[in-house]
Write a structure and sequence with these properties.
The chain is mainly β. The chain has a single domain, classed as Distorted Sandwich (Beta-galactosidase, Chain A, domain 5). The protein contains three helices and 27 strands. The strands form seven sheets. The chain has a nine-stranded antiparallel β-sheet, with no helix packed on it. A hairpin with a 5-residue loop joins strand 18 and strand 19. The longest helix has 8 residues. The protein is globular.
Length: 303
């Protein structure tokens, strides 16, 4: 469908594949040949319907917005459903407008590194949904059993750029029963959600370690707006390996998603709370002449 770029770490045991012409999606992460990212509908469904898989970028907002219009920094915005994915459960716009975007330009690719850039402000359909011109740079580096993904937002006009993006890693552990997967969730507060899965502004404290342990029959579609540690590390493990996602910088919010019967669990790094473009809660700005950087890393450990 589209040209792929594969990175290999120094051990030769970890391989990461990106599809630059399909939204710079991290489409595969293999450890010793085993796929660690749920493929769901794969590239075809992502291209045709914006149905997410593997590790897509969610930009310029992650998760849901409260409606198809919003008022922000003096702009009255109406989102065209033709360019934004509709959440099947609520009918709300979800995960931004860059799903399967063909506009990424690869800047550099090596055996262990890739970097690419997208000029968001060059595309009117994107600006209609988010009228704040900027450039997005994406880089990924493969180290020993570790992949680090860094995103930079660079304003390209005299307007500040609201920061509300995130990523959606669909982690899976092949060959084991999800009920036996061991979780570590370094969270301190769960957001109270309304019937559309939007935060009400209230929170419920979570004791350290209270959500750790076997996944069992538990299901998650939860937002956590207070995390533990400066670089919180979420993990899922079975007897063969542990996969950890560390929020290295820029991600103060996490969404944990593991619907009933699924073959995956998602630890989603988010730069702002759900619905921040509408509510304004926790929303940061990249000022003209500056840039905003966020990074997360996926580390694999054989057990």
């Amino acid at each position: 469908m589209t040209a792929a770029a594969t990175l290999t770490d120094s051990s030769g045991e970890l391989e990461a594949t990106f599809l630059p012409a399909l939204g710079m999606v991290l489409s595969s992460l293999r450890h010793r040949g085993d796929e660690l990212l749920s493929q769901r509908g794969g590239p075809e469904a992502y291209a045709e319907r914006g149905s997410t898989f593997a590790v897509p970028l969610l930009h310029p907002w992650a998760n849901r917005l409260a409606g198809w219009s919003y008022d922000l920094l003096g702009h009255d915005v109406v989102i065209d459903p033709a360019y934004a994915h509709r959440d099947a459960a609520t009918g709300l716009p979800i995960h931004g407008v860059l799903a399967a975007s063909p506009y990424w330009q690869v800047l550099d690719t090596r055996s262990d590194r890739i970097s690419a850039e997208l000029d968001f402000g060059a595309h009117p359909e994107y600006l209609d949904a988010f009228p704040f011109p900027h450039r997005v740079t994406y880089s990924a580096d493969a180290e020993t059993l570790k992949l680090t993904v860094k995103l930079r937002i660079i304003p390209s006009s005299d307007l500040s750029v609201p920061i509300a993006f995130g990523f959606h890693p669909y982690l899976t552990l092949p060959g084991s029963d999800r009920r036996d997967w061991m979780l570590r969730l370094p969270v301190a507060e769960r957001a109270v959600l309304d019937d559309r899965y939007l935060p009400t502004g209230a929170g419920e404290p979570v004791a350290p370690g209270a959500l750790d342990g076997p996944l069992g029959d538990r299901a998650f579609d939860d937002s956590f707006e207070r995390l533990l540690d400066d670089r919180p590390a979420f993990s899922v493990a079975d007897p063969r390996r542990r996969v950890e996602i560390s929020f290295d910088c820029g991600y103060p919010v996490a969404q944990v998603f593991a619907p009933p019967g699924s073959d995956f669990i998602c630890f989603e790094p988010m730069t702002a709370p759900v619905n921040a473009l509408v509510s304004g809660r926790g929303l940061r700005l990249a000022q003209p002449g500056t840039e905003f950087t966020a990074a997360f890393a996926i580390t694999v450990q054989a057990l």
